[in-house]
Design brief:
The chain is of the alpha/beta class. The chain has helices at about 80-90, 105-115, 145-150, 165-170, 175-200, 235-240, 255-260, 275-290, and strands spanning about 15-20, 25-30, 35, 40, 55, 60-65, 90-95, 125-130, 140-145, 155-160, 160-165, 205-210, 295. A hairpin with a 5-residue loop joins strand 1 and strand 2.
Length: about 300
């Protein structure tokens, strides 16, 4: 692996949780209100998961909301970024996910990780996997100046830029017009991020925490709407032209967990670790392999 994991970007002092960099040294991560500040470097020495795929990528960049950032445990694989890393034998995963994140943060975090945290890497060595969030999660950009603010801030931060959920500022703030605007912005963020990655020759995989694109839809506990509620057919066609993983409505992480009875406990919405690993093994990785980004690992006779 080229270069060392940067230790001064997006991190601040606080109760530490340890992951491992490539030298085996502990890396301090800050927990704020049960959330780990990004970036999260997933690079442990030993894995309890068997490598089942092979690929030519040495760095994995991931981002998403709580369906990605579902654990505080960083000493081994406990959510799909770690499962993908271990199953594919990738040297380093940089996970930018944060609970409650909206699509503006997710888009910016992917660009930030690729530009700032992987500047020493060849773009051909990078695989990006994005799990997009709810369409109603409009965010307000805030400047975070002070160390105390960073420690207490409950929303995602990139550098000194905070991403605050507008609905948390005023629960009545999301008018119909704002929902329409947020949906249009998500469309532009997703298609724009895809173009940005393609221009740089970075391989990418797009999924979503739940099926918001292919009717019929299962009911969900959150307040998000579906693309068809606010986009015209031309934009729907553009979204469906993207090689989504998966390409069947009931195979998205939320729906998969619901159909396989994994949501009968807990908060009845967020999948448990077992469901996430099963979904990674049975849906995410096989579909990525079908796009020829990874291939099943051959085993000796």
């Amino acid at each position: 692996m080229q270069g060392r994991v940067p230790k001064d970007i997006g991190l601040c002092r606080g109760p530490p949780i340890l992951s491992r960099d490539e030298s085996g040294q502990g890396e301090e991560m800050t927990i704020v209100k049960d959330r780990v500040r990004v970036p999260k470097y997933l690079c442990w020495r030993h894995s309890h998961l068997e490598q089942t795929y092979q690929c030519g990528y040495h760095r994995l960049i991931t981002s998403g909301c709580s369906f990605t950032s579902s654990t505080l445990y960083l000493r081994g694989a406990a959510s799909w970024p770690g499962f993908v890393r271990d199953r594919c034998g990738i040297d380093l995963a940089i996970d930018m996910s944060f609970p409650g994140a909206g699509n503006r943060y997710i888009s910016d975090s992917i660009r930030y990780a690729a530009d700032e945290l992987c500047r020493d890497a060849d773009t051909q060595d990078i695989l990006v996997v994005v799990m997009w969030s709810g369409l109603d999660r409009a965010e307000r950009i805030e400047n975070i100046d002070h160390h105390t603010q960073i420690q207490q801030y409950r929303y995602p931060i990139l550098g000194r830029t905070g991403y605050k959920r507008i609905s948390d500022c005023d629960p009545q703030a999301l008018t119909e017009q704002m929902r329409q605007d947020a949906t249009q912005q998500s469309f532009e963020l997703i298609t724009g991020t895809l173009s940005w990655l393609q221009e740089r020759g970075i391989a990418s995989v797009f999924t979503s925490y739940a099926n918001l694109l292919y009717p019929p839809f299962l009911p969900k506990r959150d307040t998000t709407h579906h693309w068809q509620d606010y986009l015209d057919q031309d934009r729907i066609d553009q979204l469906q032209a993207i090689s989504w993983v998966p390409n069947q409505g009931l195979d998205y992480l939320y729906e998969y967990s619901f159909v396989h009875d994994y949501l009968e406990t807990g908060d009845h919405f967020h999948p448990p670790e077992r469901a996430i690993q099963e979904w990674t093994d049975h849906v995410l990785l096989p579909t990525i392999a079908s796009q020829h980004l990874i291939s099943p690992r051959s085993t000796p006779n």
